[in-house]
Design goal:
The protein has 342 residues and is of the alpha/beta class. The chain contains 13 helices and 6 strands. Helix 10 links the parallel strand 5 and strand 6.
Length: 342
């Protein structure tokens, strides 16, 4: 194809000539069109789909004021991931998706030889009630290391990548980043996270409002360093690198979308490579999606994280490219177009 305009015209023509009424495959048609545009071809494919889960701890979690579960659960869940017992393991196995677990900054020392990618920046971030979560140098290093991880995965033949996360209190960081990048009041960003009751949400909102007023970051990266977690910084770096490599980027829920807000502030056209997996039940996520003018593929009431929404959405990407490549056209099937045009 010589130009994007010619490619788009050819893709739409190919979709419309399949043995179906025009538009009859709904969102799958839009999906096939977008994937073709990302890959710059009329014959796109999904190769070695992979989900990368970044894990990190948050300084604020140690006090237990914004999280119903203790900080130690982050490391415990990482062990669950590498032992194959979590929802993301089940869904990845179900849908033939490669899964990689990355220690971005868990407050725990994992044994050498564990089935985990060691990219640890530090043993958790600082408590942003007192000081910025991380230094700019740490933040930039997290972005860099995540990019290297994605580059390696891409070099092994993957062209479709989704991201997940694990980190007790990371909904607090995501809420702060959402407020900063979308100019939304903190109260409209904060949700129950891993299960806070109404009193807990009220306390969390008050604490995060005080944190938000404490700082005035001047750049996207400084905002990420101030309010983020090491796993969120790596998510941002991973999204940026995947887009640079023209990969299909499958965006999961609230935390991953918060990282995307940072990435978009750095690279304005990054949404061109992104497909939104689902609408999380965390209240701020729908507002984020509206801000990004994003249309998620699924709405299943999920609020687990881990990349579970992305793992469930990837089969739809496969279905979209397979219908585009394998479904007969009216001409090849010897069917009159008018006979099904209703």
């Amino acid at each position: 194809m010589n130009t994007k305009t010619e490619l788009k015209k050819a893709l739409q023509h190919k979709i419309d000539l399949k043995t179906k009424p025009i538009g009859a495959l709904g969102v799958l048609e839009d999906l096939a069109f977008k994937i073709g545009c990302i890959q710059n071809t009329e014959n796109p494919k999904i190769s070695k789909p992979t989900i990368v889960v970044f894990a990190g701890d948050h300084g604020i979690a140690a006090k237990g004021e914004v999280n119903p579960f203790p900080q130690e659960v982050t490391a415990q869940m990482v062990y669950n991931f590498i032992n194959g017992g979590a929802a993301i393991n089940v869904f990845s196995n179900t849908n033939a998706i490669d899964l990689k677990i990355v220690d971005a900054g868990v407050n725990h020392k994992f044994e050498v030889g564990s089935k985990i990618v060691d990219a640890k920046i530090d043993f958790g971030t600082k408590n942003y009630q007192i000081e910025p979560a991380m230094t700019l140098e740490q933040c930039n290093e997290a972005i860099k290391r995540a990019g290297e991880i994605v580059s390696k995965i891409h070099s092994e033949g993957c062209n479709t990548i989704g991201f997940g996360e694990m980190g007790i209190s990371n909904t607090s960081s995501a809420s702060l980043l959402m407020a900063y990048f979308t100019n939304t009041p903190i109260a409209d960003c904060v949700g129950s996270g891993t299960g806070l009751n109404s009193e807990g949400i009220k306390r969390k909102t008050h604490i995060l409002s005080e944190v938000y007023k404490k700082y005035q970051p001047e750049t996207p990266v400084s905002a990420l360093a101030t309010f983020g977690g090491f796993e969120i910084a790596m998510l941002c770096g991973a999204i940026l690198k995947a887009a640079e490599l023209n990969m299909i980027v499958v965006i999961d829920g609230f935390i991953v979308t918060a990282a995307l807000l940072v990435a978009q502030a750095i690279k304005k056209d990054i949404l061109d490579c992104c497909i939104f997996a689902h609408n999380s039940n965390e209240q701020g996520h729908k507002k984020m999606l509206n801000y990004l003018n994003a249309k998620p593929l699924l709405s299943l009431g999920l609020r687990l994280g881990e990349g579970t929404g992305a793992a469930l959405a990837i089969p739809l990407l496969k279905a979209a490219v397979n219908f585009l490549n394998d479904m007969a056209s009216f001409e090849s099937a010897g069917i009159s177009g008018e006979s099904v045009d209703n």
